Amino acid sequence: MASGKARAEDIDLEEPEEEQFITEDDVLEVVQDDGDQPMDEDDDEEEARDTVGDLEEGSSGHVEDLSLQHFETHGASVFAVACHPTQPLAASGGEDDLGYIWDITDGEIIAKLTGHTDSVTSTAWSADGEMIATGGMDGKIRIWRRVGKENYRTWEFLTELQGPDEVMFLRWHPKGNVLLAGSNDSTLWLWQLPSGNTMQVFAGHTGPVNCGEFTPDGKRIISADQEGFLIFWDPRSSTPVFKLGPDDARFNLDGITSIGVNPSSTLAVVGGAAGGVRVVSLSKGEIVSTLGGHTEGESVEAITFVDLSGTGAGNTGPGVAVTGATDGKACIWDLSTMRLRATLQHEDAITTLLAHPSPKSYLLVSASADRTLRTWDARNGTLLRTHTGHRAAVLGASLGLEGSVIVSAGDDGVCLVFTTEEEEQ
User: Fold this and answer.
1) pLDDT in tens for each of the 425 residues of the chain?
2) pTM of the model
3) Ranges for all domains in the chain classified under CATH 2.130.10.10
4) Annotated region Disordered: where (predicted)?
């Protein structure tokens, strides 16, 4: 591990411009599920459900495989997968203590990412695609980088970052070579790459740091822990900008399991272990709404934002958020009104939500423990496609090649590649 401490001031972190936030004095509004029912599902979905839904995990029954490509090298549960920002490559990590970079067009192994002594649970590409990070239950974070400039077929080990006890998540800065990691020992770490120098170790959480994000503008960090504390950070300081926790009864979520920040970096949506969702103003550090919609006692596992305009116009206001939970529901929320637009339904827990890039940013992909992935039109809640082929829960997914493909990670030890393009009529 490289030694030394990089200066956080070296990152281009401008002071935030005047932020937008909910008006009307930010009065707390409790929005209950208004009775919206899941959208009617088309015949294709019914057929896929009939084929897959009744199968027991690991059974020998028939599953219609609609994938374009398989990657079966892990041979044990695959916990993480991430698509390269520009190239037809994916990086996956699994229970076999290994990571792989592989070609999503033919399944060819490009690089075997070794060195972990326990399950690899996180894989993440740098914003420019020149580095890949793997994080594991062994607490190691290992970094590889591309060799040369001719192609993306050769990778070399760069450095190993140490500090966390067990890696809970990895996030790269949206514009620079700075890596964020959460640990189960209640710490949050920030490193400068390729030097590997530690920039900050954030203390203030009281339990495993389950989730964290850079704000989309890259100027702040938000993190949350299993004990229910949410902390907003300036990367240049180890002192929180603000902190919310279960000591405030309105924010008691029985532990935080997911967070998301809207594209304008003004609001955070926070999901809890008991099904609760809170909306927080990042400029004021206050709760501005409580959202219903999910079944009490069911954990909110995924949050993303969709731009219903498809033009980027939806990235300037409060935004449209989607929350997914173990009740199988994905709830679409208009944060300008705090109203529920639609409820989408899987037959088992939702594990991942993905928003397409522009110009199809109104498309949403959900992955589920029901062994399927589904592509939806978030504007009206219409199911466009059901992606089948996994024989066990889908544990993760990533969009690649400008949103034209989905790469999934399964508890069956397989990664599958699906197209998101509309079927020919």
Assistant:
1) 443 444 444 444 444 444 444 444 443 444 444 444 444 444 444 443 344 444 444 444 578 999 999 999 999 999 999 999 999 999 999 999 999 999 999 999 999 999 999 999 999 999 999 999 999 999 999 999 999 988 999 999 999 998 899 999 999 999 999 999 999 999 999 999 999 999 999 999 999 999 999 999 999 999 999 999 999 999 999 999 999 999 999 999 999 999 999 999 999 999 999 999 999 999 999 999 999 999 999 999 999 999 998 877 667 789 999 999 999 999 999 999 999 999 999 999 999 999 999 999 999 999 999 999 999 999 999 999 999 999 999 999 999 999 999 999 999 999 999 998 865 33
2) 0.85
3) 66-194+393-424, 204-388
4) 1-60
Q: Which CATH number fits domain 66-194+393-424: 2.130.10.10, 3.40.190.10, 1.10.1200.10, 2.30.170.40?
A: 2.130.10.10
**Type of residue found at 183:** S
